[in-house]
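DOMAIN: structural biology
WANTED: fold as tokens
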Amino acid sequence: MDAMSIARLSTTIAETGTRQDVSMAVLKKAMDVQASSAAALIDALPAAQSAPNLPPHLGNRINTTA
């Protein structure tokens, strides 16, 4: 190998590492944005309300013969 081939190989390896670092940073940022969006959607859901004035036996049995 001559000096130019070694220099070219070294530059290629360095560029590949930089591309991978940038790709990982973009992926992490996208995941952060997605997590933030999901949290906002969950926070936007209305609070669950309990059913008022229902008898205590309601919902204890399932009709499996219907």
